Amino acid sequence: MQRLILASALFVAMSSALADKPYDFNGLTLGTPLANIQDQRRWDCVESKSHKGQATCFLDREHKESIGGVAMDTVSLQFHERRLSAISAFSSEQDFEKVLDALKARYGNPRQESATSAICLDTKSSDHEAIWSNGASSIKAKKCNRHMFRSMVEVSRAKAKF
């Protein structure tokens, strides 16, 4: 009986550990060292002069990343203490539903999903946001990004439970 209880507890602990692995973006995993990205010639990286260990890398023009067959216009990587801490990818507002469907197919239904009364400037449709969170990281997909007039997908370390 004790072995069965111990085995059950071990299974639950292992399941929790697996569930809390950080999300990735096309093989890029949060926590990856900056040096590993700099070794890949497809990223242009700029290290902060004022904040040691912080850097931003952009996918160069010769390479493309996609989500659900939708090519991302821009992909940027943020590093803190020389470790990958956030990934941002941007695409057109018109392709948001395809990107959202691909994220749902891979990660299941989001923990939080909402449409707002805000109107996207490009498509003149309602804004839409979806958030996945697993304890170790989160994914936020947003149809309207006011700064770039593009849809955005961001993978980052979990800051708080949703």
Summarize the structure.
The chain is α+β, with helices and mostly antiparallel strands. The protein has helices spanning 2-19, 34-39, 96-107, and strands at 24-25, 28-29, 43-47, 55-59, 66-67, 70-71, 74-80, 83-91, 112-119, 126-133, 137-145, 150-157.
Key structural traits:
162 residues, alpha+beta, eight-stranded antiparallel beta sheet, two-stranded antiparallel sheet, 3 helices, 22% helix, globular, disordered N terminus
How do the helices and strands line up, and which of them pair or pack?
Layout lengths: L1 H18 L4 E2 L2 E2 L4 H6 L3 E5 L7 E5 L6 E2 L2 E2 L2 E7 L2 E9 L4 H12 L4 E8 L6 E8 L3 E9 L4 E8 L5
Antiparallel strand pairs: 1-2, 3-4, 4-7, 5-6, 7-8, 8-12, 9-10, 10-11, 11-12
Provide structural commentary.
The chain is of the alpha+beta class and 162 residues long. It is built from 3 helices and 12 strands; from the N terminus they run H-E-E-H-E-E-E-E-E-E-H-E-E-E-E. It has one domain (22-157). Helices cover 22% and strands 41% of the residues. Residues 1-18 have low confidence and may be disordered.
Rounded to the nearest angstrom, the distance between the terminal CA atoms is 37 Å
Number of domains: 1
Mean pLDDT: 81
- Give Rg in angstroms: 18 Å
Strand content: 35-45%
Please give the count of helices: 3
Count the beta strands.
12
Which range best describes the helical content: under 10%, 10-25%, 25-40%, 40-55%, 55-70% or over 70%?
10-25%
> Uncertain regions: pLDDT < 50 for 5+ in a row?
1-18
Shape category: globular
- Give the structural class: alpha+beta
What's the story with the biggest beta sheet?
8 strands, antiparallel
What are the secondary-structure elements, in order, as H or E? Answer: HEEHEEEEEEHEEEE
Task: Provide the spatial order of strands within the biggest beta sheet.
Answer: 3-4-7-8-12-11-10-9
